[in-house]
Amino acid sequence: MKPGLLPLLAVSLLPLGATAQSPKPASPPPAAQAIAAAERAFAAQALQEGNKAAFLATMADSAVVFSRAEPALARSVWSGRPAATPTDPSLRWGPATVGAAASGELGYSTGPWYLQQPDGQRVTYGQFFTIWARQPDGRYRWLLDNGISHPAPAGSPEPPATLSYPAAGQPPRRGSTDVLRTATALDEQLSAATAAQGLAPAYTARLHPQARLLREGIMPLTTPAAIRQQLDGEAPRQLLPAGGRIARSGELAYTYGTYQNSGAGQPGRGSYVHLWQHGAKGWQLLAEVCNPAPQ
After folding, report:
1. In this predicted model, what pLDDT tens digit does every residue of 208-253 receive, in sequence order?
2. What is the spatial distance between Cα 276 and Cα 268, in angstroms, rounded to a whole number?
3. CB under 8 Å, gap of 24 or more: what pairs does 150-155 form?
4. Which residues, by range, are in coiled-coil regions (predicted)?
């Protein structure tokens, strides 16, 4: 019998009325589901109690935000902000893409946000990016919060009902040069490659197939063509990493810091956040958020 006839014969032997079943999609990792739930609960708390109360209640003690494009302790920043009033617009958001390390103690979420006036008018839109860490009590608290604003989207600004879960990574082999002492080594390598090769080639060699770039003022960049076009127009920059962390399982890491444009006649500085994932092709950049410093 020809091998090609086997699948047809298998279908023909099904009981009358039965159909071939396609395999069920794999369930998302429990840690990623828990992070999605934590993000949604965080957003709901903000609507009920106000942003200040919700951010302070859900952050880790070491959580970081950015103030004028400089890393700062989130508790100090949020403690100094005024409490909400009834006339303030409400901040609404929810996850669209969520992932976690195999070890489960480190993960991330990203998705849309918008501001809504008390009369229901939506006035500002953007994307958030949050790093989460599981605490000793099993709950997740956020370690880093950042994002961008962008024009009103063509479709609904609401988060999607069905979440996206990027493919899982693979930890480096023991003894491999990909085993890192510090997460910031990845940024140092990228900065050195940018100086030697140029921005676009250095990034292109390291981009994950599911990479997304967030840039202030434009919609999220999620395709290789859109990302390359954006990188071709950006000035070379030197990365100055300030911190980061590698998951215990070894295949997921995040870093953050500031950058300084290094191109001749192209001054500028700002902040960045990187999400790195290790796989068959080594460490790859899964997400980047860049925000220019205010003038």
Report:
1. 999 999 999 999 999 999 999 999 999 999 999 999 999 999 999 9
2. 25
3. 150/125, 150/126, 150/216, 150/217, 150/218, 150/219, 150/220, 151/125, 151/217, 151/218, 151/219, 152/122, 152/125, 153/112, 153/125, 153/219
4. none
d(CA 15, CA 33): 37
Round to whole Å and give the CA distance between 130 and 132.
6
Collapse the DSSP code of 143 into the 3-class scheme (helix H, G, I; strand E, B; otherwise coil) and give the result.
Answer: strand
Q: What is the DSSP letter of 5?
A: G
> Residue 270 corresponds to which amino acid?
G
Decide the pairing of beta strands 252-261 and 237-246.
Answer: antiparallel
- Rounded-to-integer distance, Cα 272 and Cα 44, Å: 27
Q: How far apart are CA 234 and CA 188, in angstroms?
A: 19
Helical packing angle, 30-49 and 51-58, nearest 10°:
150
Alpha carbon distance 1, 260 (integer Å): 67
Confidence of residue 24 (pLDDT cuts 50, 70, 90): low
Q: Compare 265 and 292 and report the one with higher pLDDT.
A: 292
Q: What is the mean pLDDT of residues 24-52?
A: 91
Which domains, and CATH codes, for the chain? 30-150 (3.10.450.50), 184-292 (3.10.450.50)
CB 86 within 8 A of CB 65: no
Handedness of CA 65, 67, 73, 77 (dihedral sign): negative
User: How far is 255 from 232, CA to CA, in rounded Å?
Assistant: 23
Q: pLDDT per residue over 161-186, tens digit each?
A: 999 999 999 999 988 889 999 999 99
Tell the residue number behind the tokens 């197939």, with chain if given.
209
How many other β-carbons are positioned within 10 Å of the β-carbon of residue 17?
A: 5
